[in-house]
Design brief:
heterodimer; A: mainly alpha; Serine Threonine Protein Phosphatase 5, Tetratricopeptide repeat; 6 helices; about 65% helix; B: mainly alpha; two-stranded antiparallel ribbon; 2 strands; about 45% helix; about 5% strand
């Protein structure tokens, strides 16, 4: 998604687009399409950067996706909000890991390890 | 008949699951009847008196077509398989079931995920390409694991019944699924199993093989017994997939990219952690 388009989107539109990307990532993983997942990852990061750059850091708005039915959307939302809402975001990562839902639970587990050993410092 | 109402105070969640399953079973029953009818029609041309090539002759036992010509060409040769990981003989009626599941005792964190989705479709005939076949198996194994984790053991058992209806899965891929559902083991157990080939498993390099070779680590380290473990093939693929996906904890790089300039100890630490978090190695 082009930066110019992201600039023009309202916060709720960005949140919707963010959720759609998570759903597509979930399908890409399910289909074993790693390169498609990786392209979507870049789009996801672009939305996060756009929200972070807005006054007051709008990434907190992604917390509405904590209860989203799709596990990849939840994982993405938890990770993206670690810097702005560390405690609830970490709790959600722990829930995802404890659910054992492959492969998102494994990603959540690795993320928690990296948080614990200090190699991952959310910004 | 009991009519379920969502606000029923005495509503039993197991009963609700049973009612949902009953609807799914009715659908399956209809499908089975249709398939049986189709099979009966196909077999209608069968003639038990059709002549066959006599015993001790080339092609002995084969059906003979009109004009006394063997139905199968004389030059027919059975396909030879390339040597590969051990496989089980085809499953036959009366053999013990090949996919068995153990209901889990609920633990803290269970039911923490989203609602269990519908089970994936399982074609009765094997898809033509290996990629499509493994895709079906990966989805089936993943769904079974999620169902068991979420405590839906009844649904899991019913789904095993569906898998048993697809002989191509039971014959070839049931070890993949069973290995995938195995609980985590100790490092010593995983390392000791390397010497014993087992269907549905692969030898996995804790420090990634190709990346380590490209970084100049000696083969004695890469292929050394301390770096090798035997794990479920499906888990092996999942871990390989994880190594290729960018993620936040590695600054947007993939673990493979992040580890490119790292020493052996760091690669080993990440490799072991990946095994733990993927449910292969006991913490």
């Amino acid at each position: 998604m082009k930066k110019r388009i992201l600039n023009e989107m309202r916060t709720n539109e960005l949140v919707d687009a963010y959720a759609q990307i998570g759903i597509l990532q979930y399908s890409a993983l399910d289909d074993g399409k790693i390169s498609k997942y990786n392209r979507l990852y870049d789009e996801k990061r672009a939305i996060e950067e756009e929200m972070k750059a807005r006054p007051g850091d709008e990434r907190r708005a992604l917390m509405v996706l904590y209860g989203y039915p799709n596990m990849q959307v939840r994982l993405n939302a938890a990770t993206a909000t670690l810097a702005v809402a560390p405690e609830p975001a970490r709790r959600l990562l722990e829930e995802i890991y404890a659910s054992g839902w492959p492969p998102q639970a494994y990603d959540a587990g690795m993320r928690l390890s990296a948080l614990d050993d200090g190699t991952f410092k959310p910004k | 008949m009991y009519r379920w109402r969502s606000n029923d105070p005495v509503f039993d969640p197991d009963l609700r699951e049973l009612l949902e399953i009953r609807a799914a079973l009715a659908e399956l029953s209809f499908l089975v009847k249709t398939l049986r009818l189709r099979e009966a029609v196909r077999k209608a041309n069968f003639n038990p008196h059709q002549p066959r090539v006599p015993r001790n002759n080339p092609g002995g036992g084969q059906w003979v077509g009109p004009g006394g010509i063997a139905v199968l060409p004389v030059a027919f040769r059975p396909r030879t398989r390339r040597p590969r990981s051990p496989q089980l003989p085809p499953w036959q009626e009366g053999d013990p079931p090949r996919i068995t599941i153990t209901p889990r005792v609920p633990e803290i964190g269970d039911n923490g995920g989203p609602p269990l989705e519908e089970p994936p479709p399982v074609p009765r005939a094997a898809p033509p390409s290996a990629q499509d076949r493994t895709q079906v198996v990966k989805r089936a194994a993943g769904w079974l694991l999620r169902a068991l984790r979420a405590g839906f053991s009844l649904r899991a058992r019913l789904f095993v019944g569906v898998l048993e209806g697809a002989k191509w899965i039971i014959d070839v891929y049931s070890p993949y699924i069973m290995a995938y559902l195995e609980p985590p083991k100790t490092l010593a157990e995983l390392q000791a199993a390397v010497k014993t080939p087992e269907a549905g498993t692969d030898v996995h390099h804790i420090v990634e093989q190709t990346a380590a070779a490209e970084a100049g680590f000696p083969p004695e380290m890469i292929e050394g017994p301390e770096n090798l473990v035997r794990i479920s093939r499906l888990k092996h693929w999942e871990i390989s997939g994880w190594y290729q996906r960018p993620n936040e904890e590695y600054g947007g790089l993939s673990p493979r990219g992040f580890l490119k300039d790292k020493n052996w100890a760091e690669r080993q630490r990440v490799g072991l952690e990946a095994l733990v978090k993927h449910g292969v190695l006991k913490p």
